[in-house]
Write a structure and sequence with these properties.
There is one protein chain. The chain has about 110 residues and is mainly alpha-helical. The protein has one domain. It is about 85% helix and about 0% strand. It has three helices and no strands. Helix 1 packs antiparallel against helix 2 and helix 2 packs across helix 3. The longest helix is centred in the middle third of the chain and has 41 residues. The radius of gyration is 22 Å and the shape is elongated. It starts with 8 loop residues before the first helix and ends with a helix.
């Protein structure tokens, strides 16, 4: 696996969890903003119009960011899949070693 910088399993898990939370939060924000825009569609006034415009711009930016993150996650998943396909014995060996260590740790408790 030729990556620019080595990543430990723990760092990968933290990054995956962070990206997952970020994605969920961003999707929630997008849904909230869409709901707010629908709810204020009949409202008039300069401040409402300015707020709606700003919210629409933020919504567009959030959707773009979410799409970019999805592409990045898919690319990393593809890289991992390619590595496993190219090195099946190594992948099985690593999995077996991790399972063995986890088995020992669980047996001690």
């Amino acid at each position: 696996m030729s990556m620019a910088e080595p990543v430990t399993v723990k760092e990968a898990e933290v990054e995956k969890g962070t990206r997952g939370k970020l994605g969920k939060e961003l999707k929630a924000v997008v849904a909230d903003v869409e709901e707010l825009l629908k709810a204020t569609a009949s409202q008039t006034g300069e401040r409402i119009a300015a707020a709606r415009t700003k919210a629409e711009e933020s919504l567009k930016a959030a959707k773009i960011r979410l799409a970019e993150e999805e592409v990045a996650v898919r690319a990393k998943a593809k890289t991992a899949e390619d590595y496993v396909r190219d090195n099946p014995c190594r992948a099985v060996g690593i999995t077996a070693a991790v399972a063995f260590v986890l088995g020992i740790l669980v047996a001690r408790r």
